[in-house]
């Protein structure tokens, strides 16, 4: 093996064959127009630093670059086998139809130059007419989401060995309950927004009770934020960061880790991606938790459609 790597704790995904371990922190790859670093370079740097878990999606347009970075990491000897990595990608809403799941996964695998995924996720609990990917999705493009049919196809993908685990993203408690009512393979993961200004306690408790691992996205609340950032610009969190000699980002990520929640954080900057791994050898204090409990709560990512859907989050009307 190549470079010295940071030790990143892992969790076992409960609904897989019990052998699949997922590093608790992964590198997000949702593209940002302003980014000066390419996905390929960022992933290579991340592998050098010890990241082994990468979170992609067919909608991000990064699968090819991620695949190229993996090939290069193998050639450079940074990893000795693809099996050392944990690769997630997600099905886009235009493919969220029972007969399109397998072809979409095969296409993603081809683009990633991989034989198998570690985790395949339903990106959103909605379906749009097959075809062109647009963002945001016009409401007029939506068609009824056949959750049961889609999940059967996801299960088939796992049975075929094309993915080691299957899961969902942006599912409410109500939608998870529905899914669990017919799933023969329960979802291993629900990837949802979790950050200090959207702590999702109820959903996290529900997932824990069902053995579903929660993965937090937008942990720094930065990806799609405009204007004031409710965590990175929070004075209380700045005080906590100073008290610990850490950055606000590290406070955010450490809190998520202490919740038993896994996280995908995006940084393409060498220093910041390193900083984001330095959260495992210190802890928050009881008094920090009191302050954290007082942070105003509001969902950042409200949905992928234009206009927004009223019932996307069901009972969670935040
Ligand atoms: P995020 O990870 O909360 O924030 C990313 C932003 O924060 C980037 O602008 C990054 O800039 C900056 N940053 C990273 N580390 C930092 C640090 N230590 N200090 C200061 N700034 C820092 O937001 P996100 O990209 O929205 O979410 C993370 C990942 O979750 C995505 O990339 C994607 O993989 C996934 N996601 C999934 C969904 C879904 O629907 N399933 C939705 C949103 C996101 P630099 O790169 O310049 O450091």
UniProtKB/TrEMBL annotation:
Organism expressing this protein natively: Stylosanthes scabra
SUPFAM superfamilies: NAD(P)-linked oxidoreductase
Superkingdom in the source lineage: Eukaryota
PROSITE patterns: ALDOKETO_REDUCTASE_1, ALDOKETO_REDUCTASE_2, ALDOKETO_REDUCTASE_3
Regions crossing the membrane: none
Domain NADP-dependent oxidoreductase, chain residue ranges per copy: 26-295
InterPro entries tied to this protein: AKR, AKR4A/B, Aldo/ket_reductase_CS, NAD(P)_OxRdtase_dom_sf, NADP_OxRdtase_dom
Identification of the protein by name: NADP-dependent oxidoreductase domain-containing protein
Lineage: Eukaryota, Viridiplantae, Streptophyta, Embryophyta, Tracheophyta
């Amino acid at each position: 093996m190549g470079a010295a790597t940071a030790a990143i704790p892992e969790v076992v995904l409960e609904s897989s064959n019990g052998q699949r371990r997922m590093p608790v922190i992964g590198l997000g790859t949702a593209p940002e127009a302003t980014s000066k670093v390419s996905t390929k370079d960022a992933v290579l740097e991340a592998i050098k630093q010890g990241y082994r878990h990468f979170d992609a999606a067919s909608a991000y347009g990064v699968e090819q670059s991620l695949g190229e970075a993996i090939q290069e990491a193998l050639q450079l000897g940074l990893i000795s086998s693809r099996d050392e990595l944990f690769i997630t990608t997600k099905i886009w809403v235009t493919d969220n139809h029972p007969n399109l799941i397998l072809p979409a996964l095969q296409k993603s695998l081809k683009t990633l130059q991989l034989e198998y995924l570690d985790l395949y996720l339903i990106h959103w609990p909605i379906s749009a007419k097959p075809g062109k990917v647009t963002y945001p999705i016009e409401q007029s493009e939506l068609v009824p989401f056949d959750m049961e049919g889609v999940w059967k196809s996801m299960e088939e993908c796992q049975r075929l060995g094309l993915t080691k685990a299957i899961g969902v993203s942006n599912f409410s408690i109500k939608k998870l309950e529905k899914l669990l009512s017919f799933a023969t393979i329960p979802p291993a993961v629900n990837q949802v927004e979790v950050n200090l200004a959207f702590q999702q306690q109820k959903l996290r408790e529900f997932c824990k009770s069902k053995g579903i691992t929660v993965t937090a996205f937008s942990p720094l609340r930065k990806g799609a934020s405009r204007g004031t950032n409710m965590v990175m610009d929070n004075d209380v969190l700045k005080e906590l960061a100073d008290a610990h000699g850490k950055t606000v980002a590290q406070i955010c990520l450490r809190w998520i880790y202490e919740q038993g929640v896994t996280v995908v954080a995006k940084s393409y900057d060498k220093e910041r991606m390193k900083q984001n791994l330095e959260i495992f050898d210190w802890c928050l204090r009881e008094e920090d938790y009191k302050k954290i409990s007082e942070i105003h709560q509001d969902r950042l990512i409200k949905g992928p459609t234009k206009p927004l859907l009223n019932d996307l989050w069901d009972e969670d009307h935040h």
